[in-house]
Amino acid sequence: MGRSGYEEGAGAGPVAVSLSHRVPDLGALELLLAVARLGSLGRAARDRGISQPAASSRIRSMERQLGVALVERSPRGSRLTDAGALVTDWARRVVEAAEAFDAGAQALRGQRDSRLRVAASMTIAEYLLPGWLVALRAELPGTAVSLLAGNSSAVAERLLAGAADLGFVEGLQVPAGLDGAVIGHDRLLVVAAPSHPWTRRRSALTPAELAGTPLILRERGSGTRQVLDAALAGHGGLAEPLLELASTTAVKAAVVSEAAPSVLSELAVGEELSARRLVEIPVSGLRLGRDLRAVWRTGQRPVGPARRLLGLTRGTS
């Protein structure tokens, strides 16, 4: 063994030896402190919740590791050798430092767990997140939650900037720089006011007819728009929208006022369909299903309240 924790390699010069191989582990040092405090290896073993043979084995292993005798055993008990007393003083400082480390880590966890920053696309923010957050509040009443509602592009930007702990999107795929998990499914419906001519059709709408009609739509960058653009790309693409609005609520209001039809999430129009303020228009040969995803920065899986919220979202239909 060379100096300062180095040993000679075969013709390659000194090789660093890990400190963990040269210094006893924390459990061994705590056992040595218990022997010094209680004056008996047996009592020290009971104090640490281990058997006496296990305690003896750990002390012997530590003595071999350090190369000095630490404890003298006799029928009257156990006492520290001179070297053992010196090592015990050092061990006390190491354990105190570990306790300070643990207290600091607990404080960091407490700070992390006291808040949760969520970013969600509009449909999820309006129609799913309120229920999830109520359930989270019941489990973690001390966690303050902030929510940014925007389109899927805004959610990705927020996460990549480190301004959100967990996000939810409705697009076709996980945005670049993020990891994600599917938490449920949704589908888009073509809807119109009851007075619109499409509601009196005897046949389903064709994809080409839908693509060629100026609609009231969400803005580019929204998950709804991404799915619709992709679905109609092979049918001539979307006509220039009559209106582009930044919220689902605004789109619904415009459609109800008979301005034009739209394509919206089934989650968002259930109440209006039930009340006959909107009517679903059948479309043939067009798939408008989509996955709902939780997303987070690549390599940073959710922890603390974000992980719990993610667990509460499982099984969304």
Strand-pairing-aware structural class = alpha/beta
- Amount of helix: 40-55%
From N to C, what is the helix and strand string? EEHHHHEEHEHHEHEEHEHEHEHEEH
**How many DSSP E strands?**
13
> Biggest sheet, in brief?
7 strands, mixed
Strand residue content:
15-25%
In round numbers, the mean pLDDT is 87
- Overall morphology: rod-shaped
CA-based gyration radius? 32 Å
- The number of distinct helices, counting runs of at least 4 residues, comes to 13
Stretches where pLDDT falls below 50 for ≥5 residues? none
Kindly, what is the distance between the CA atoms of the first and last residues, rounded to a whole number of angstroms? 64 Å
In a nutshell, what does this entry contain?
The chain is α/β, with parallel strands linked by helices.
Describe the structure.
By secondary structure, the protein is of the alpha/beta class. It is 44% helix and 22% strand. The strands form 4 sheets. Strands 5, 6, 7, 8, 11, 12 and 13 form a 7-stranded mixed sheet that branches. The chain has a two-stranded antiparallel sheet with strand order 1-2. The protein has a two-stranded antiparallel sheet with strand order 3-4. Helix 2 crosses helix 3, helix 2 packs across helix 5 and helix 7 crosses helix 13. The mean pLDDT is 87.
